[in-house]
Specification:
267 residues, mainly beta, 18-stranded antiparallel barrel, 1 helix, 18 strands
């Protein structure tokens, strides 16, 4: 009898230990859009994220649960073996798009990346199963990353200079950049795409004003759908955290003279 009681005790401890290594988080929202002169619409979104940890290994599984079926949205495993970090992306997302400028063909995006903390300053060297090699690190407050791949190298530099956050990316010869700073309590960002954003207020009670540049019409290519022309427009978004734990947001867009109301919660 004592052996049986001890066996139950061990089983209970094992079960508790297993549950303790699992964390559940998620988010949900409901949005009402009057769509300007078009018919109004109500949309929903609900997502779950399960994170399991055992030692230096972490597995995350995400799911979209607001549809008619439980749909996996992500699945990844990260483990560390000494100075080596292995990341496995096990979920093949749908990358083909029928939208403006979207990708024309489906591509497999699962893969494994192996990174090594090399003894050359603070650099990390990584290689994935496609043969892409990435070297990254932070020196004098500037974070640098360079990825060598057959489709074109990508180099990114980011850091804070004299109170201004600067990020520059060169991908296959094309350069994009963004600048961010705070003036009199207003956070301003400017991107090479000519998009300007100003954020007023504090966390939990903010107003974001954005100026979005026009999009030129472009013909389809071998890898992307044609792009529909869009005129320049502005948006104003006001967000307020409620004592109930939810967040209420209202967004107005001059593109179609529409107002969107969104209630969301994250846990």
């Amino acid at each position: 009898m004592k052996k049986l009681i001890a066996l139950f005790a061990v089983s209970a401890v094992a079960s508790t230990s297993a549950v303790a290594g699992i964390a559940l988080s998620g988010s949900a929202s409901v949005s009402y859009d009057d769509n300007g002169t078009a018919a109004s619409a109500t949309t929903y979104d609900a997502d779950l994220l399960v994170t399991g940890t055992a030692g230096s290994t972490t597995v995350t599984i995400g799911a979209d649960v607001d549809g008619t079926a439980f749909a996996t949205s992500s699945a990844a495993m990260t483990t560390t073996i000494g100075p080596v970090t292995v990341v496995a992306d096990m979920h093949d997302e749908v990358t083909k798009s029928t939208g403006s400028g979207g990708q024309t063909a489906e591509a497999v995006d699962t893969g494994v990346t192996i990174s090594l903390d090399a003894p050359i300053g603070d650099a990390t060297v990584g290689v994935d199963n496609s043969g892409n090699v990435t070297i990254s690190g932070t020196w004098s407050g500037i974070t640098l990353s360079h990825t060598s791949k057959s489709a074109g190298d990508t180099t990114t530099a980011a850091g804070s200079i004299a109170g201004m956050d600067v990020s520059v990316t060169n991908k296959a010869g094309a350069t994009t950049w963004s600048l961010g700073t705070t003036v009199s309590g207003v956070a301003l960002t400017l991107a090479s795409s000519q998009k300007v954003t100003a954020t007023f207020g504090l966390a939990g009670n903010t107003m974001v004003v954005s100026s979005i540049p026009k999009v030129a019409e472009a013909a389809s290519t071998a890898t992307a759908n044609s792009t529909t022309a869009v005129v320049a427009y502005s948006t104003v978004a006001i967000s307020r955290a409620l004592t109930s734990g939810a967040t209420l947001a209202a967004t107005y867009s001059t593109l179609d003279d529409s107002l969107t109301l969104k209630a969301s919660v994250a846990f």
